[in-house]
Design a protein that fits this description.
mainly alpha, rod-shaped
Length: 153
Amino acid sequence: MVLCYGMFDDVFSQWLDKKAAEIIAKIDKEKLSSEEMIILILKAQANHFAHLDQDLRREMQILREDTMREIALLREDMNRRFEQVEKRFEQVEKRFEQVEMRFEQIDKRFEQIDKRFEQIDKRFNQLYTFLQWLMGLLVSSAVAILVKLFWKG
């Protein structure tokens, strides 16, 4: 017959309780044998183990609850820190967007300056062409005057 550990434990505990009660009943009436003393010591140890087991389970439960509380606190702290990091990243992202907008404004200003230089360049070309024509008229007028003054013909 195969007994499982829990079943054996229950049967042994019942037997030990019964034997210990019988021995305790005759403590004052008779002298106890070595076997009976061993049974009482065994019962005391079983009670001690039972109390140790209860204490250990209670301590384990407290430890488990403390650990769960600490984990929850750490999780809250971690979430708070992640939120802070996320906010910082958002701030950095906004700064980059502002810098990008500034660069776009600078690009627009350079485009405007380029257009102004193109306009100035066209005006210089027009002025240069006008001055060439003017110079040509002056030279031809001067030649015409010189020809009239010095031509004998």
